[in-house]
Amino acid sequence: MAGVGNGSSWFQRFLLPGFAFKGVIIGGGYATGRELAEFFIGSGPRGGLLGLLLAMLIWSVVCALAFVLARAISAYDYRTFFQGLLGRYWIIFEIAYILFLVLILAVVAAAAGTIGASVLGMPMWVGTVALMAAIVGVTSFGTEAAERMFRYSSTALYVIYALFFVLALSHFGDRIGPRLALDVPTEGWFIGGVTYASYNVVAAVAILPFLQHLTSRRDAMIAGLLSGPLAMLPALLFFLCMIAYYPEIGNEALPSDRLLREIGLGWFQILFQLMIFLALLETGVGVVNGVNERVAASRSGAVLPKRARFAVSAVLVIGSGVIASRFGLVDLIASGYGAFGYIMLAIFVLPLLTIGVWQIHRRPASSHDGASAAR
Predict the structure, then answer these.
(1) Are 69 and 360 in contact (CB under 8 A)?
(2) Phi/psi at 247 (nearest 5 deg)?
């Protein structure tokens, strides 16, 4: 990029970070509904909604702080960011992040295979290979290509989720109210919300390359606060639809498939599954691009060639695809996400809320932000 903040549009400053954050989260966070069932259905309809709102609040606060700190220390890749936040212990995050990244890619690869098999009747490997090829293809062209993808794919995702919600209301909306009124225990909504938010909020670090358009601390704060609602709105709409078939929908491997069958429109089922594939692509592109930019930063400012980006991307997605073929989607989510939620809480969220806040306080927004905003 020509320069940090130079010629940045309002979209790049305020919405792009939130769209990218949503993109990293959505494929491994709620595109199929399996993650919402795992963490929120067990707390009942109202408890689940409370947990989702709590997770949204956590995302907004953490993103705002992370974006402000990243801009203050000029950290637009996760290695530089954690060198500033954790000092010599930054390597602890990198180890955990790479392991978590492999888990995320395995989940989206497994989801793509499951969608291809359940909807189109294809062998599991076809959907997985198609997704892996698309991720490698986009990330080979760098952050600017990913930005263009997020701009258009996010618009498509929001439109299709809105249409999904309208169709769900028209076909089985009368079931939602009575289930919201059920007098069922809401235990676990707080832990569910914190755990879900913690393992997903690592997306704030994966999207650091997209923050180079910010022109001031105010930009960073606004973009961060908007990231929570931008990322959570589709999930809230989806969960409201899932409530119509509480509690049995919690046992579905693909809750989205169950709801689409209830809507009963073949053309929309195909459209929605294509949207899920696009959501999985967003997640894969977001996390793999973050690794590419980390590798580029370690080259002392040298541009990472397309061939090198292709190689890094291919190694990550192929290795994750192998894991996806070994374990199923439900097992990957149930076994891996909960543990990483606590790990990220310990090595990212808590340090950010303590060391990070202290560092932000030490670096008051003054002449640097003013000069940046004036450019």
Answers:
(1) yes
(2) -100, -5
- The CATH number of the structural domain formed by 10-355 is 1.20.1740.10
Whether 373 shows a pLDDT value over 50: the answer reads: no
CA distance 323 to 340: 17
Tokens of 119: 């909807």
Rounded Cα distance, 341 and 193, in Å: 10
Please give the distance of CA 194 from its chain centroid, rounded to a whole number.
15
Q: Which amino acid is at 174?
A: D
Length reported for the chain: 375
Q: What is the pLDDT of residue 254?
A: 80
Q: Which token pair is 8?
A: 């940045």
Domain residue spans of the chain: 10-355
Alpha helical stretches, state H, 34-188: 34-39, 44-72, 78-86, 90-120, 124-139, 143-172, 176-180
Q: What is the pLDDT of residue 109?
A: 79
> Structure tokens of 77?
């890749």
CA distance 230 to 233: 6
